[in-house]
Amino acid sequence: MKTGVRWLVGLLAVVLLAAFGYAPVRAAQIDDPLLRVLVRKGILTEEEALEIKKEAELEAQKQKEEVAKAAAEKVAKEGLALPKALRGVKFGTLTYLDYTNGYGPFDNGKEEGQSYFTVMRAYFNFKKKINSWLSFRFTPDIHPGNERSYDLRIKYAYAQFKLPDFGFLTDLKMEFGQGHFPWLDFEEHINPYRMQGCMPREFFGTFNSADRGVSIAGNLGGKLDADFVKRLTAHYPIYNHYAGKYGTFWLSYMNGSGYSSEEVNENKAVELRLTLRPFPHSTSGMFPLAGLQFSYFGIYGEGNRAVAGLGDPDYTVNLFMLSYQHPWFMVAAQYSTSTGNNNGKWVVQRPSGKMEELDTELYSIYADFTLPVFNEKLHLYARWDHFDPNDTGDYLDTDYGRIPDSNDEADHYILALAYYLTGKNILMLSAEWVNFDKYYRIGDTGYFNEHWGAYNPSGPINLDDGFRIQTVLQISF
């Protein structure tokens, strides 16, 4: 009996606690003063107050997440997490990682060869859009070659101004500072294999790829059909850079000496590239003619040194190129002449004793084909250059005696396979050789660099022919 009474009393206590003790617990969970007042006045039940509290907490959490998301998007868009000077800055690189094995004209005919890994180029691109019409680029680069250490120098440092259209001249821009050379940047967007070596005229020593001055450039008649450009860039992602509808132009007023040389005279060079696209509307069919372009490039200036009995030597270039870009291949042929070169060193003494600039002549043909294998990422590339450094039909007086204007030319050949890893990241395997005539002359400062065919009137004769196998990886982002 006592046990039953105890059990009954315990059960009654539990019921009482459930009836009267739970309410304070629930009431304690309502920490909002306004909800407590509403419950005490009977306007809300405790259950309703707790439900309102739960909904309010969920709404507060949602607002907090939305604020955090908006802040993150603003940081990503405007770079607010960075110092003000770095907001909107784009960083990237263009780097050539190279392995070379071969022999050349400085091996004394032994063909013992050279073999080494090198960083042939390493650009670090810093680009800043300051506002809608003004931007800036700064690009340091590593001096190439098989060196114990690498020199860091400035390749580009220029302000770019976006200009309004002027009738038929559209997408106008102006560069001021150390900027692009008008021809080579264009040619390297036709021939995408700069990482293998220099373009023809630069290879033989006429000029280089950047200079200090002012330039204005733009498209003729707007932009080429976007769908056609998209077809071109499926296999050649670099091609759309100069996609003017009727062509493009570039006019520069520069030192003329090139970015790697000091300007030592007061002369400035006028440089013009004009490219015409005669059939911009032919974008369909097996061979769309919209990819056909005619280009002219000219330089008028003086060489970058004074020569006794001559003064500042003349420096002129006239270059003509016919190029055709197709979604599956590209081919280009060019012919050019020059008087002197940018550094003023192409000067010789004639039999009469008179000092004169060399008149040179160059032919070049190159082509690239997309092969229908490996997911259409493998390309076959071939190139031939022929250079005559003394195209006057006269003799030269040299340290080796009087040599004729014959048997003094050079032929340059390249045959390569290029595999497009992704975008502009390319792995290339090439065979390259140069055949020198007996009286062709180059400097003796080194062999395996980007100018191993560069002509030098004071260099040695009876050169060995050059050959190398090169593997180069281009990294671009």
TrEMBL record:
Family matches, as Gene3D superfamilies: Porin
Residue stretches in coiled coil: 46-78
Alphabetically ordered keywords of this record: Coiled coil
InterPro entries in the record: Porin_dom_sf
Domain of life: Bacteria
Descriptive protein name: Porin
Organism of derivation: Thermosulfurimonas marina
